[in-house]
Design a protein that fits this description.
Layout (H helix, E strand, L loop, with lengths): L21 E5 L4 H12 L3 E6 L8 H7 L3 E6 L5 H15 L4 E4 L14 H29 L2 E6 L12 H21 L3 E8 L5 H5 L9 H9 L10 H12 L10 E4 L9
Parallel strand pairs: 1-2, 1-4, 2-3, 4-5, 5-6, 6-7
Helix pairs in contact: 1-2, 1-8, 3-4, 4-5
C-alpha cells in the first residue's frame, strides 16, 4: 500500500536478494523500468540501464550510484538488433557477464485499426515485439553458454483482456505472453522466462497516453481508479517492480512460462 507520499514504503530497504547478479533493464529511465532498476540495485545487482533517451532528472544510473549502488547508462534503440547487442556487450564489458534480462521498453497508439497508419502499426510491433525478439536473441548465446539465465518481459493486462482503441498494443502484449511460454519451453531448464502484466499504473506514460492537450484532471484519474475492480486505485511503478524482483530472484526458482498479472483486480471483472 502506498504511503502518504504515494511511494512504496519499502523502497529504501534492501535484503540482498540479487547480490552478485548483473541485470539489464530496458526502458530504464522512466516508470516501471526506472523503479525496477533502482530496486535491483538496492537488492545488490549491478545494473545496465538502457533507454532510447534520457528521461529522468536525475538520470536513473546517477540516482542509483548516488544511493551507493552500481549502474551504467546506455542510450540504445532496443527495437533494433544492434541496440540489443550493444546492451549485452555493455553488461559483459562493465560487469563481466549477465544474469537477468528485463525487457520492459514498449509503446502504444490509441486508435481503432481503421484509423491507424501502417507506420503507426509497424512502430508498435517493432518496439513491443521485435524489442523482445532482438533482446532475447542477443542474450541467449551467453545464457546457453553459461548454463543459466533469467528473462522477464513486460506484457500488460491488455494482453489478457480487450480495451477500446488499443488494437496494436493489445495484440503485441498478447503476443508477448505466449512468446514467454514458448521461450520457457524451448530454453528450459537452463533459462527461466516469465512476464508481468501490469494494469493501470500511475506513471507519466499513463497520464500522457494518449497524448492530451490538457493534463489529466483529478476527475479523470478518479474515473480510471473506479475501473480497477478490486482495489479502486492506480498502481505504483514500485509495486510492479517488486513483482519483477520476485521473478528475478531465486525466490521464484520454480516459476517459468508464467504471466504474472499485477493490476489491482482490473482483470477480475468484465465491467
Amino acid at each position: 500500500m502506498p504511503n502518504k507520499n504515494n511511494e512504496h514504503p519499502r523502497m529504501n530497504q534492501g535484503l540482498g536478494r540479487l547480490r552478485g547478479k548483473v541485470a539489464i533493464v530496458t526502458g530504464a529511465d522512466s516508470g516501471i523500468g526506472r523503479a525496477t532498476a533502482r530496486l535491483f540495485a538496492l537488492e545488490g545487482a549491478k545494473v545496465v540501464c538502457v533507454d532510447i533517451e534520457e528521461r529522468g532528472d536525475p538520470r536513473v544510473d546517477h540516482l542509483i550510484t548516488n544511493d551507493g549502488g552500481q549502474a551504467v547508462f546506455l542510450k540504445a534503440d532496443v527495437s533494433q538488433e544492434p541496440g540489443c547487442k550493444s546492451m549485452v556487450s555493455a553488461a559483459k564489458e562493465n560487469y563481466g557477464g549477465l544474469d537477468i534480462l528485463f525487457l520492459n521498453a514498449g509503446t502504444g497508439v490509441r486508435q481503432k485499426i481503421h484509423e491507424m497508419s501502417n507506420e503507426a502499426w509497424d512502430h508498435v510491433i517493432q518496439l513491443n515485439l521485435y524489442g523482445i525478439y532482438h533482446g532475447v536473441r542477443a542474450a541467449l548465446p551467453l545464457f546457453m553458454d553459461q548454463g543459466y539465465g533469467n528473462i522477464i518481459c513486460t506484457a500488460s493486462s491488455l494482453g489478457v483482456l480487450a480495451s477500446p482503441r488499443y488494437p496494436a498494443y493489445s495484440a503485441t502484449k498478447a503476443g508477448i505472453i505466449n512468446l514467454t511460454r514458448q521461450l520457457a519451453v524451448d530454453y528450459g531448464p537452463e533459462v527461466r522466462v516469465n512476464c508481468i502484466c501490469p494494469g493501470p499504473i500511475d506513471t507519466n506514460r499513463v497520464r500522457e497516453f494518449p497524448p492530451r492537450a490538457r493534463p489529466v484532471t483529478d476527475e479523470q484519474k478518479a474515473a480510471s481508479e473506479k475501473r480497477v475492480a478490486g482495489l479502486h486505485r492506480l498502481g505504483l511503478s514500485e509495486e510492479v517492480a517488486y513483482c519483477v524482483l520476485f521473478l528475478a530472484s531465486d525466490e521464484s526458482s520454480y516459476v517459468t512460462g508464467h504471466a504474472l498479472v499485477v493490476d489491482g483486480g482490473q482483470t477480475i471483472s468484465a465491467q
